[in-house]
Amino acid sequence: MILWIEAAVALVIGGVACRLWYRHWRARKIAAARRVEAPNSHYSSAGVRNQEDRERWGGITLPSLHPLNQEKAHRLFLVVDADGIHALPPRDRLFPDNMTIPRLST
User: Fold this and answer.
1) Confidence category of residue 22, pLDDT binned at 50, 70, 90
2) Does 60 lie in the same domain as 24?
3) Half-sphere exposure (CA, 13 Å, Cβ side) for 49?
4) How many separate domains does the chain show?
5) How confident is the model at residue 9 (pLDDT cuts 50, 70, 90)?
6) Residue 60: phi, psi to the nearest 5?
């Protein structure tokens, strides 16, 4: 009778040990198969691009522009201030972008 009890205890201990080993093996397998993307520093979100554009456009001095360009820039900045930068269509965003491009002096 004692022999059966020792066998049952050994079987339970072996089962628990196998279960612990299997859980550890499965966790390592899942961790090895996990795909982690490297940080992508080449691309930024639309919100970040909008913020960078607005900061860059803030450097435009209206008195230094031609009077026609002053009017258009002032009108675009009013739209941006009122509705946000996302309110400008791509064609209108091109105008302040061109005003901030550094030019070669001749």
Assistant:
1) very high
2) no
3) 9
4) 2
5) very high
6) -80, 125
